[in-house]
Amino acid sequence: MTERRGPVLGVLATLTYGLLLGATALASSRVRRWSADHSVADAVLVVPLSFFGLLLVPALSWWVAALIAVVAGVVFVPVVVHRRARRARAVRPTDR
Predict the structure, then answer these.
(1) What is the mean pLDDT of each run of 10 residues along the chain (96 residues)?
(2) What is the pTM of this model?
(3) CB within 8 Å of 35: residues ≥ 6 apart
(4) What 3-state class would DSSP assign to 14?
(5) I need a labelling partner for 12 at 20 to 30 A (CA). Which of 44, 49, 56, 77 fits?
(6) d(CA 5, CA 52)
(7) CA distance 13 to 4
């Protein structure tokens, strides 16, 4: 990433993926618990992950990659949050 997009984006990509992979490797049960408790924050992670992934495509400029990542987040986040909420309601029926 550093060779293609410069040191700033290279360091940010390394920190983003490194922290996520490191946390998952060292404390996977805590990461799963956090993911279940914070469905919106967990779903929003698709934006930086897809942005840095799209930066590896040489034909895309950084702003096009950012735009695609934001659009993916706008589509992906509500779908994931809705599905998780529906699944949580099915598991824990409410007393009315």
Answers:
(1) 84 90 92 87 90 91 94 92 83 63
(2) 0.76
(3) 42
(4) helix
(5) 77
(6) 10
(7) 12
